[in-house]
Amino acid sequence: MISKQKIYSCKICGARYPKWLGQCTKCESWNSIEEDIIKKSPKSDLIQSKSEVKKISEIKSLQNERIKFTDDEFNRVLGGGLVRGSVVLISGEPGIGKSTILLQNSINSPESVLYVSGEESAEQLKLRAERISKNPKNCYVLTETNLEIILKNINKIKPGIVVLDSVQTVQTDLFDNSPGSTTQIKECTSILIKLAKSIGLPILIVGHITKDGNIAGPKILEHMVDTVLHFEGDKQHQFRILRSKKNRFGSTNEIGIYEMDQSGLKTVANPSELFVSKKQNTEPGSAIAVTLDGDRSIMIEIQALVSSAVYGTPQRISNGFNSKRLNMLLAILEKKAGFKIGVKDVFINITGGIKIEDTAIDLAVVSAILSSNINVSVTSGTCFCAEIDLSGELRSVSNIDKRISEAERLGYKKIIVSNNSKIGYTPKLIQTVKLKNLSQVVKEIFTEKD
Using one digit for the tens of pLDDT, what is the confidence trace for 112-157? Predict the structure, then answer.
C-alpha cells in the first residue's frame, strides 16, 4: 500500500521542515520553502545492496577501472577516463554543446551506452547522431522521463554507461512534484547514485543552469556527485572549454578545448595556434601573452585600442578581461610609468572569444595599451609573462618553466618575465629577459624603435 506524507522543503538547499516557514534556517534564504507530497512505496530491487564492513586492505581494486573514450580532451578532463561506478554532472549554457559532446562520445564508446533523453525524440537523436558520425553504433536510445521506467530498462539492457539528458526533466513516482523541482532533482539523483555505486555503473548527467550561472536545483547536488564539469564559451564563437570544477578521481586543473562546427565538437590539439594571428608584421596595439589555464599553457593575443575620449567620461571596455583589473592597470600606468591616458578611451579584446582570469597576462595587456597609445608596434616574436603589482613592479607567476617551453615550441624569440622568476628550464631557442618594473619594460620594448 502506498502512503502519502506532506513535508516542506527549501528549493535552495533542500532542507526539510514539518511545517512552512518564511525563512530557511539552514541557508537563511527567504520565501524558498515549498510544499512537497511524498509517496512511500517499496524501492526498486535494482538498487538494493548488502553492505559489509571491510578493512581497506581487503577491498579488491576494480579491473580496468577507467573507460577510455576516443575523445582525448574528454579523457583528460575526467582525469584519464571515466571511472566505473562514478556519477558525472555536466552543466553549461543552453546550446553550448552539452548534449553534443555526450552523444558523440556515446556513439563512439568502447562500452555499450544507454542514452536517456527527456528533451528530444528518438528520431531527433538519430538525425543528430548521423550528422556527428556516419556509422553510429553501440548506443541504445530511450526517450523517457519516469525514473522507475528508466531503472527497468537499465536492468533489462545492462549497459556499460548511462547518459541522462537531463536531470531536470526526470521525475520519480515517490513524489507528486513536477519535474525540475528541488525535491525531484535531489531524490532522482540520489537514487541514480545508489544505483551507480551498487553495480559499478558509470552515469553521466546533464544539468541545466540558472540565469546566474549556477546549476539549477539544490547546491547539495554538486556535493552528491563525484565529478562536476562545466562547459563554457561564447555561442557566437566556435571555441568551447570543458572545465573540471570537482573531481574525486583526478585533477581539477585540467581543461579540454573544442571547436564547434556543423559535424559536432572537434578537439583542439594546439590551441595556441588558433588564438594567435599569423601576421608577419604586428600592428600597434597587439601583444602576445603566455597564460596557463589548468595545466595547459596557451599563447593568446591581446589587442588594445587607445583613442581620444569623445564624451566627457572616458570609456573602459574589455572583452575577455576583468574590467576592474583593467582600471587598476591603467591607474598604475599613469602613476608609475607617467603615461597620461586618464582622459582617453581604452578598449581591450582577447582574441578567440575566451575569458582569461590569469594575472600573468597583466604585462601583455599593459604593453598592448602602450603600443596603441604611442602607435608603435611590439617587436615580432616577443611575448610577455608577468603580473604587475600596485607599485609597478613585475611579479613572478607559477609554472614559469612550462610557459617558457610553450613559447619556445611555437617559435618565439624573446619572452619578458619578472626579475624574481625562478627558472629551472634552460631554453635554447628563446631569449629570456628579466625585468624589474614598468620603466624597464618601456625601455626594453619601445626605446630601440624610437
Answer: 999 999 999 999 999 888 888 877 777 999 999 999 999 999 999 9
pLDDT digits (tens, 9 = 90+) for 376-394: 999 888 999 999 999 999 9
Q: How far is CA 25 from CA 19, 173, 302, in A?
A: 13, 28, 47
Q: Which residue has better confidence, 450 or 187?
A: 187
> What span, in angstroms and rounded, lies between the C-alpha atoms of 332 and 241?
32
Per-residue pLDDT reduced to its tens digit, 363-373 = 999 999 999 99
- Which pLDDT belongs to residue 450? 47
- The cell for 279 is 601576421
- The counts of H helices and E strands in the chain are 11, 23
Lookup: cell for 3: 502512503
Residue 305 has pLDDT above 50, yes or no: yes
| DSSP H or E segment with residue 416 | strand 414-418
Q: Where do runs of H (alpha helix) occur along 22-71?
A: none
pLDDT tens column, 61-98? 766 689 999 899 999 999 999 999 999 999 998 888 89
Tally of CB atoms within 10 A around 151: 19
For residues 302-325, one letter each, b for 16 or more C-beta atoms within 10 angstroms of the residue's C-beta and e for the rest, the string is bbbbbeeeeeeebeeebebbeeeb
320 backbone φψ class: left, alpha, beta (φ>0; ψ -120 to 50)? left
Cα–Cα distance, 123 to 60 (Å, whole number): 43
Beta bridge partners of residue 117, listed in sequence order: 143, 165
CA distance 337 to 331: 10
Length of the chain: 450
Is the model's pLDDT at 45 over the cut of 60? no
Which ranges of 19-136 does DSSP label H, i.e. alpha helix? Answer: 72-78, 98-106, 122-132
Per the structure block, which three cell numbers stand in for 154? Answer: 537499465
Q: Is the peptide bond before 263 cis (omega within 30 degrees of 0)?
A: no
Residue 374: burial class (beta carbons within 10 Å; 0-12, 13-18, 19+): middle
Q: Answer yes or no: is pLDDT of 190 > 60.
A: yes
Q: How far is CA 300 from CA 6, 243, 353, 401, in A?
A: 56, 18, 11, 17
Cell representation of residue 131: 550528422
Q: What is the mean pLDDT of residues 333-344?
A: 85
Contact predicate 339/306, CB 8 Å: no
Bridge partners (DSSP) listed for residue 241? 232, 257
